[in-house]
Amino acid sequence: MPSPGEMKFAAVIYNPIKVDLAALREVVDEAEHDHGWSSSLWLSTSTEDAGQERAAEAVQSGASVVIVAGGDGTVRAVAEGLQSGSIPLALLPSGTGNLLARNLGIPLNDVAAAVTIAFTGDVHRIDVGRITVTREDQSESSHVFVVMAGLGLDAKMLANTDDDLKKKAGWLAYVTALATTLRDPHELRFRYSLNGGQQRSLRAHTLIVANCGALPSNIVLLPDAEVDDGQFDIALLRPTGVIGWVQIFFKVIWENGVLRRSRAGRAFMTKEVSALRYVKATQIGIRLARAEQIELDGDGFGSALAFEAQIDPKALSIMFPRS
């Protein structure tokens, strides 16, 4: 961090595929001038470094804030590189989903407003998920995630999404992939344990381990999820035929998205259904019957035979809109 008397400066880590660099520089330059900060350090991600190494450079530089201009994958990588959380992270949403920004109330289509939050917002600390993934060859890799980790529907949908179509059509590209995925009758079969407890066997269509619960298009998958409550919110999708999917869509779209938003609406909410179950935990271990696709914060991470995930409470500092 800058010593007393030194001017503050920001480190901007940007995904060159996602941002209009010239326009972004103009907005950041203006904010620097208005708030009396020194010139920012600009660091580009690449195919070799999604953001972890750039985050380490930002820390070593002594920046007062790390501004991330990119999608959820870039945000996740930078958060992984920061680790200690000593330098706050500011979000400039530039991707397709922008899931963390949506959940934190960061403006999605107003670069100037998001940049203002980076320079003048309030610092809050949020939880981080830490996960170790075991592959079929028994090799392991460890990562962090700030939104969610998933097996089943969401991971398969990402694997089925055409990257070129995604660049052209954005979130709509997932519609075709979703239609393909829903035709897959395969269930996940696994053993699991929560908080180091007894192992149990289960079958499910989809498993989501989440730090926050809102998705694009105002969809609230996990309505009780909070980014700073020290717990995962875990969703199990277990539909049986068309009726099961109807139950899930009714709960998620109508009840979570509409009724839950008002006191009067909550009076009409139904009880939990077997097709969609929720549970909270600080740690979860999964051992699958066969390797399955896994995703972290909206990016596919290949196949996993097992994983261990635990919450790291308030491990990441984030710039929030000023209260």
SSE layout and pairings?
Elements: E1 10-14, H1 21-35, E2 41-44, H2 52-61, E3 65-70, H3 72-82, E4 89-93, H4 99-104, H5 111-120, E5 122-134, E6 140-145, E7 148-151, H6 153-160, H7 163-169, H8 173-182, E8 188-194, E9 200-204, E10 206-210, E11 214-215, E12 219-220, E13 232-237, H9 241-256, H10 263-266, E14 276-281, E15 283-296, E16 299-320
Parallel strand pairs: 1-2, 1-3, 3-4
Antiparallel strand pairs: 5-6, 5-16, 7-10, 7-15, 8-9, 8-15, 10-13, 11-12, 13-14, 15-16
Helix pairs in contact: 1-5, 2-3, 6-8
How many DSSP H or I helices?
10
Q: What is the end-to-end distance?
A: 24 Å
Largest pleated sheet: 10 strands, antiparallel
Q: Which class do the helix and strand fractions yield?
A: alpha+beta
Number of extended strands? 16
Describe, in plain words, how this protein is organized in 3D:
The chain is of the alpha+beta class and 323 residues long. The protein is built from 10 helices and 16 strands. The longest helix has 16 residues, at 241-256. The protein is globular and about 60 Å long.
Tag the structure with descriptive keywords:
323 residues; alpha+beta; ten-stranded antiparallel β-sheet
